[in-house]
Design brief:
Elements: H1 16-45, H2 50-74, H3 92-103
Helix pairs in contact: 1-2
Length: 104
């Protein structure tokens, strides 16, 4: 049983600026929180545990993920159809067919 995909409202809309804002705010907040935690552990408690190193590792991984998203947005890959799964990809002929059906 396959479900029919509806085209995005207003056509293939670029949401790069929205995605960029969310990524930058989220990463900035995460980096500030981890920096403050590491500062407190190093200067106040004077002991850094395994959990601290794992959190730092997670933020570094998150940084690479954010970088990939930002590069995709700069290259124009943040449109609605670019964010669909491969099995849901919208071809140009499909978009033209939807536009023709709307005009009827």
């Amino acid at each position: 049983m396959t479900s029919q995909l509806e085209p995005p409202t207003g056509g293939d809309v670029d949401i790069g600026y929205q995605l960029t804002a969310v990524v930058l705010v989220t990463f900035t907040l995460a980096a500030i929180a981890v920096t403050l935690r590491m500062y407190a552990r190093l200067k106040i408690v004077r002991k850094v545990g395994l959990d601290d190193w794992l959190i730092l590792f997670a933020v570094v991984c998150f940084k690479f993920s954010c970088s990939k998203i930002l590069v995709d947005c700069v290259n124009g890959n943040c449109s609605c159809s670019a964010l669909l799964l491969r099995s849901q990809s919208l071809s140009a002929s499909t978009m033209e067919a939807w536009e023709d059906m709307r005009s009827i």
